Amino acid sequence: MNSTKRSGRPLRELQTITSAAVTVAELLDGAAVVAGGRRIRVLHCGPKRWNTRAELTTWARALPGHWETVHEYHDSTAPAMSYRNTQGLRVDVLRASQWFGGEPSPVEAANAWRAVSGVLAARFDMPLLATPATTGRELFARTIPNGTQWPILDLATRELIRSESGQGRIAVTNPDGRPIERVVAYDGRLMYAALTWKLPAGEPIVTDRWHNYARGRYKVRFAIPNNYNTGCVCGAAGHEGIGPLAVKSPSGGWEYPSEPGYEGVTWADGAEIHAAMKHGISCNVITGIVWPDEASPLDNWTHRLTKAIGDAQLLGGDGASATTRRNVGRALRALIIHTLGIFHAGGRWVTGAGTIDQIPSDATGVTRQGSVWTWRTHVDRVDMFAHPEWSACVYGRARARMYLAACSVPAADVLGFATDALYLASDPRWRDDGKVGTLRRTKVVEFSEPQWRPQTMTQLYAMVR
To answer: What is the pTM of this model?
Structure first.
């Protein structure tokens, strides 16, 4: 089976407003006043009114009698709901933080929405859709040359890649070390966009040996050298606490062992294995999947998005504030990250609504609201976005790049990783060349008195707020 370009479809731009309403009833009735009878989108701003999915569900279903739910996706951090009133008005609701992070005010969100709409319309000639993922997916579809296609891997291989490839590295290092006097934050400028070149393509082959320059994923038995903390073949005085490769933890997450003498088995991208071996980690291939061909399916997409970022940095000439420019940058970063997540996804949950006789046999989460029943079903993805080999390759390259960056500074100064961000206790003063993918300093927090190293990512994030 192949993934091919789908025909472009005309997209109508929805009127989009912002609201900091306390209740969903207040939000919907306020939207109805300005909608003029046409479907409207609302970006919900300000503090969340829920902490859990159950609390979100309670909030989202507290409807007045003249409104009903059409669609709902109750993720506590990225919800999406759609409602209709008795006059037929449709209102779509999502959180502004899905696009801009944090808790932007209604004015900040409105300004950023207009700005990002403008820069993307100029580069892709289409309006913003509801979420970064749906927008990025449509933008990608519009950049595929006519007649271009890429084979879709068989289900077993796709599931293997998804299950054995995490995304960004998020972890503190050396949590029991010495006190620190500052936190210096570096992050990669649109890191993922810089790593989409020459991705795996074609039918993979199974191998039991290392292919140095081929695109591949390998199951390896690796070992941390006994002198990893005190000296490295790279010349550094050790890399204590900076594990090279991820292994699955008992809790189902990922951890990065770094203890001298540790031996483990894991799957990793070729870029990660190459980076590990560069720092003295022995890696013996048990089995692997290697692609003899390479392709550039995302190059046109990331090139246009990179140009859009450049456009966003010029918004000051249009009277845009630094806050708006920052929020546009966050929106484009979210668009890239969430679109790669679509390639990695094994399918999607679909919410349905109807009578009790229409509930599918494989439905879950069945609930009743008045005379309407709602349910969720899982649909496997076999379409142009069923390419976890692409996303896994990008994720692996990013983890390898962040590991190499961490190994270039004293190990005691590495506080933690957060996908494309690195937190340090000293400033290496890396040069910012302005290019996509470059690690650039974004924040320095000096403490009035020494602080204990963060024990968790929550503590680390609190230090740099």
So the answer is: 0.85
